[in-house]
Design a protein that fits this description.
The chain contains nine helices and 15 strands. 34% of the residues are buried.
């Protein structure tokens, strides 16, 4: 693969031989930057609001993406990944009938501002791959209420009465997926892996309609495994604690949950963060997700801490 970029009078040329990509894989965590997100790179290569054109050859290499990609934009500066708000970050990306990978676990680490903007956009027919659908009127639950979601790929669907109602009435399609399998399906998609075998779900409804195969297990015994498919999403939306200007992300404690694998498996990844710091300000050893996976960002702060279950007791008399 070769990559060239030209910037007006000042030109910067980049040539990346595909044979070297396996070296960069270790550095960037995945080859995903070249294969999965080339569409996102072409959409976002110029700064927001700058007129630009994108040209690429129609020839596809054996690896499934253009052999030579050429970019030209009118100013000699690389893109800014930071957008003013969620609606502008979604502009040109969100559409009907997309598969969206969303980070979060319950109400922890969910991309609240982006979910609100998707709701306000009015798009319909969405499929969400997410651990759960939030709760009534929070998280993806807001989109369920407005009938914008046609299918959920989830591992836990409790605590949401509207979800239950739509599922039982046949209005909502649900693909139940064991939690660890869901995380691995996202991770596999981000790594360009179309499928993998697992023991999880064998002999249950989860295994129905899936390929079964016998393998030697770690104990040397032939066991049955089922084939699970990697998730290749049209769009990833995630929530991070801190980012630098290049898109390197740090997730805060348990808010990392599904955000990390979800971010990698989309053609375009949009992150909402609480704080953006200058490039170089983050300790490289503390970065959870390299900026190569992130196409666009917004600052969503301040946030109100949502509590799923509030349990109290009467104060004892002194």
């Amino acid at each position: 693969m070769q990559f060239y970029a030209y910037t007006g009078e000042k030109s910067a040329n980049f040539c990346l031989n595909f044979r070297l990509l396996h070296i960069f894989k270790a550095f960037f965590a995945d080859i995903h930057c070249a294969a999965q997100q080339v569409d996102g790179l072409m959409k976002g290569i110029a700064s927001p609001g700058v007129t630009h054109t994108v040209r690429h050859t129609n020839y596809l290499s054996p690896f499934g993406f253009p052999d030579v990609i050429s970019f030209h934009w009118d100013t000699g500066y690389f893109m800014s990944k930071l957008y003013s708000d969620a609606a502008s970050a979604l502009d040109g990306v969100i559409d009907n009938d997309l598969l969206v990978a969303a980070g979060g676990f319950g109400l922890c680490g969910i991309p609240e501002r982006l979910l609100d903007a998707i709701r306000d956009s009015g798009v319909t027919g969405l499929t969400f791959a997410s651990n759960n659908a939030g709760i009534d009127n929070e998280g993806i639950g807001k989109l369920l209420r407005t009938k914008q979601v046609k299918k959920m790929i989830s591992s836990y669907v409790g605590e949401n009465k509207e979800f239950e109602r739509q599922f039982l009435s046949g209005e909502l399609e649900v693909e139940f997926c064991p939690q660890g399998t869901l995380a691995e399906r996202m991770r596999a998609g981000g790594a360009g892996i179309p499928g993998f075998y697992t023991k999880t779900g064998v002999g249950t409804q989860v295994a129905e309609g899936k390929e079964h195969k016998e393998f030697l297990d770690p104990d040397g015994v032939m066991s049955t495994y089922i084939l699970e498919k990697g998730i290749f999403a049209d769009l990833s939306i995630v929530k991070a604690w801190k980012a630098d200007e290049t898109g390197n992300l740090i997730f805060r404690k348990t808010a990392r949950n599904f955000n990390q694998p979800a971010a990698t498996c989309g053609k375009v990844c949009i992150a909402e963060v609480e704080e953006v710091v200058p490039a170089g300000a983050l300790n490289p050893d503390e970065i959870h997700l390299p900026g190569v996976f992130v196409n666009r960002m917004i600052v969503g702060a301040p946030y109100d801490k949502k509590i799923e279950f509030r349990t109290t007791r009467e104060r004892e008399q002194a």
